[in-house]
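Researcher: For the record, we're logging two predictions in this thread. I'll number them. Prediction 1 follows.
Model: Prediction 1, sequence and structure:
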Amino acid sequence: MNTPCHMKAVVIPAVNALEVRDVPVPGPQAREVRVSIRAASLNHRDVWIRQGQYAGLKFPCIPGSDGAGEVDASGAEVDQGWLGREVVINPSFDWGNDARAQGERFTILGLPRDGTLAEQIVVPLDQVAPKPAHLSWEEAAALPLAGLTAYRALFSRANLQAGERVLISGIGGGVALFALQFALAAGAKVWVTSSSPEKIERACALGASGGFNYTEPGWAKKATQAAGGFAVIVDGAGGDGFEHLIDAAAPGGRIVFYGATRGNPPVLAMRKVFWRQLSLLGTTMGSPLDWTDLLKFVGQHRIKPVISDLFSLERASEAFDLMHRGGQFGKIVVRVRS
């Protein structure tokens, strides 16, 4: 049987362009495997790459950090027992030897290396793990980047403990929803913020104790009156709203942030931070140990990612547009093949 030499892939050929085209099928080298992708999911970085607003841009490129599928080929020095196995891909490449922070060689799958929005992808064997058995292909594809980011933020960085009060800002995005699910599974009490009453209501249906509209003046004061100060606050926005998060933190609280979609805070209220013994913790992705622990945690607690919308590979442009509008509640998944 002849092996096809071309496959379908989402290609970004230039800034603000996107198309689905035929590209050569990649071949695995030593200690690599090729994965036949069943499903992939989007992250904000994919949209930023298309818009030309990401470091290290190169065109053309195949985006996509998240994917799940079956191993269909392997290079030298790979146990042939991997062939046919159902796997999920760790998008955190070359973390390095220090669990405290990534090293200089660290990259995220999907740039500069071709990503998962393709029918097949080649990755090092160390980057794949058995797919959690309780997850569908779409759910498994939704897990990696956002799940890893949320897991490290809560546990490796903020050291979340059962019974603590947690506030998660901007509920609806992938990382924020995983943080909600993980914190609840760990025995914490969780509140959320959003500008959308509907998203707050949906978060409460998932187990949140309540929510606050961050566009309302004085919301942080209302939050502390209603729920008390928060031991852990998880944020991916920054910007003008960051000082309100400081106001909402309990004495000795930890504010962990994984992004700055609204830019840097114009002012950092240092007096509030040092007087109330607050910790500001930055976090990015996760280490190999975080990845292993994430998969164990998800399996143990039978956690299933929240999927917002499902698109075919041919409709990938619509998926990108939805993420750009911020209209999702959960992960946007692309089904590559059934």
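Researcher: Logged. Prediction 2.
Model: Prediction 2, sequence and structure:
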Amino acid sequence: MSVSSEHIVIRGLAVYHPEESVSQDYFIQQYKKKGVDITNLLAYLGKENRYLSTDPEETTLTMAIKSAKKVLEQEGLKGSDMDMILFASGVHEYHVPPDSCFLHQAIEGKTECVVYDMNANCAGMVVAVDQAYKAMKANPAIQYALVVGSERMIQFTKKIDVVNSCNFGDASCAVILERTTEEKRGIARSAYATVSEVADMMQLPYQGMSKLFEPSGSLEDKKIWMHPEYNSLASIPYAVNNIVSLATAEGIKVIDIKGFFVSQASLKLRELLSIQLKVPINNIEFIGNEFGYTGVSSPFIAMHQAVKKGKLQKGDWFVLWSVGAGSTSCVILGRF
């Protein structure tokens, strides 16, 4: 069988989140004590509950290991079966060595394995899946790839940052990509849009790593800084253009796409995509009301939930899309 007749499919997904679920009432009461009413903000974001760990030992990395082990067990595979491991996050626990080495160690990966970290902020896991897909298409020796997205953003959020502190949730998602000869399945195309003019509108650590250990300023000051005019909705026209272009190139209509699994940053984002793409809003999965905004993993948790509910089945067309600070965004079109 030639490489051209082989396809790269999403074989399975698994999600890990802490057991502790926090309702919006917790945040409403916390800010009410400060004289701030966040009821309308939470409605705009679409956030009702989210999972937040109370374990001081829980990290981006520990969550990633748990979701990775979960998907391997679910799919009846071992760490040693993986030919490629990519770990995507905006807040990696380690820079040296890469978190992916710890992940490789934890699942007992084999020596002959491509291993690296990915940071495209909230677009990172979509980008990582796209890179893994392209590497697999180029290298027939890669049968399986494990892509994990994980982050605990709230611990890097300033106490006075109302928007982010009310939005973030803790979670990780792991995906296994597999080479197959199954027809009418597989990742088909991808497209990117980068608008770097806004690169200075969000920073972590504030003023950069070189200033992180300087004695001036508190650690609180060095947490996420976001410009008051930062607007994630500005990326929507680029997403719409990319989705339409990819569908056209593949010879399908946007309405043929069964599921849209996109950034869960806000409910408004979902509404605008539905209007501009002219697709039913229920085709755009929203799980932010249960999970909060989990950043890099959020489109894949949405896909995972749709698969669990039977809303996305083998052969269905899907879109994955997210945008990261900077800003850069990636769209993937494929058949599940």
